[in-house]
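Fold sample X.
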Amino acid sequence: MLRISSSMRLSTVAAVLVLLGGGCSSAPKPNTGALSAAGNSKATNGVPAIRPLGGTIGRVIQVNVPLRFVVLDFSLNPLPTFGQRLELVRNGEVAGMVKVSSFHRGTSVVADLVEGNAAVDDWVRNK
């Protein structure tokens, strides 16, 4: 039978506590930046980094200027209906109007540019 002295037991218990105790401390969390007015997203120059869900809100992902149509992405938002008119919004101001055509694939929709001009990363919303 193996005999363990009290000093060996004490040193073994101390070593286990040191190993387990080292993982309990946490590093300081980095500064997450300023929060928007909603308090749930980072703000960049006063504009929320995350747009709210709800309604028909999409983003322009491609523009064809000669043929005057745009491709819109409606990820996480409901798709607009055929013929629906949507406002193009750039920097918080209305930049034009589009009319949804019949073609769509997944979360992408094609719309004709009715008035104004469009640029990639513009937002569209219900009129």
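Fold sample Y, listed below.
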Amino acid sequence: MADLLNPDALHHALDQLDGWSGTTERLSKTYRFADATAAERFVERVSTVADAMNHHPEVTVDGSSVRLDLVTHSAGGVTQSDLDLATRIDTGESHGDANLDNPAAGETADRVPEGSGPGGAQPLHDRTPEA
């Protein structure tokens, strides 16, 4: 089983991850795109990275916004695997042709509460994230 990060290590790591927030229970980041098609392409690229790492985020798509939540369920909170996935997502590996100064090719936003968008945020898929 992976070790949970302590609050100090998590705080230091979050200082290095642009736009991510969280606690020792989960990390979150919301991306905003020009349209729903761009958001869908981003989710597909994130899925490819996650599959390669065998560590999957919880994904919520609400039109042109995508929220990613990272947690290692088997450990009961945030582990190094979550930080590694966040880093790979934000280093452009999941962003295709996006500008690395703004890797999502959209704007990041503060965490959006679930159900806050029109009709509520809808989960992308039912796959349970793996540790």
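Sample Y note: Residues 96-131 have pLDDT under 50 and may be disordered.
Also: Residues 7-112 form a domain with the Gyrase A; domain 2 fold (CATH 3.30.1360.20).
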